[in-house]
Every structure is written in C-alpha cells, then in structure tokens.
Amino acid sequence: MTTRKYTEDHEWVDVANDNATIGITDYAQNALGDVVYVELPEVGATYEKGAEAGVVESVKTASEVYAPISGEVTAVNELLTDTPETVNTAAEADGWFFKMTVTNSDELDTLMDEDAYKAHVASLD
Question: Using CA of residue 2, residue 56, residue 88, residue 113, what is the dihedral sign?
Fold first, then answer.
C-alpha cells in the first residue's frame, strides 16, 4: 500500500514500505509557471529531512526542492532532464523528482495528509 504525504513547502511523498518517491505538488507547479529546468540530486546522496535536494526553474523564478524525509537517493527522474515541462503536465505522477529510502519512518508523522494539505493550500489564498 502506498501512502501520500505533503509538506508545507509543497512537496509530495509517496511511501511504500521503506521506499519514497518525491515530487512537487500541482499547486507548486502552477505557482511556478512554465518549468524550463530541473536540477536533480545525485543517486547515492543522503539528505536530512528539510535539506535542499534539488532545484526547479521556471520562466518566472527558481525554487528549491527539499527532502521531505531523511534518506538516501536511490533513483532520479531522468525524463525531467530532457523534458522538464513534464512537471507542469504531470506534477503528481510522471513529473516525480527522485526516490529515496526511508531511514526514519517517524518523520512521516510530521507531514500532512491530503485533507490537511488541502486546508493548508486554502489558507494561502
């Protein structure tokens, strides 16, 4: 079973067992506008929760992508290197950024579920 959690910085994380897939939310890609470049982390890199793990650049601005949990990067989405606009068309599916191991599952409890994230986004408008 996969569980999806969200951060206040508009990252999503899908967790199945000890594996996590991370990307930015549809809200984030919409706020950024047309994505033109994505800087992905290196496979094998380790990050603590909240550390900068990548960058997404749009025609408007650049924004950091943070590790929502601690772990080691096990894969990156090479599709984004050639077609960064995938983030705009499928932010919460094919536009994922990287995968990592979950080294501290307790950190998942600090993230929002879908209802809490929707309330968070609504409070921003």
Answer: positive
Q: Which two tokens stand for residue 65?
A: 């992508």
CA 58-96-106 angle, 5° bins: 115
* pLDDT per residue as tens, the chain (125 positions): 789 999 999 999 999 999 999 999 999 999 999 999 999 999 999 999 999 999 999 999 999 999 999 999 999 999 999 999 999 999 999 999 999 999 999 999 999 999 999 999 999 97
CA atoms within 13 A on the CB side of 65: 26
The token duo for 59 is 């025609």
- Terminus-to-terminus CA distance in the chain, angstroms? 33
Q: Are 53 and 68 in contact (CB under 8 A)?
A: no
Is the Cβ–Cβ distance between 90 and 35 less than 8 Å? no
Predicted TM-score (pTM) above 0.85: yes
Please report, as a single letter, which amino acid is at residue 50. Answer: G
Q: How many CA atoms lie within 13 A of 24 on its CB side?
A: 27
Cα atoms found within 13 Å of the Cα of residue 113, Cβ hemisphere only: 4
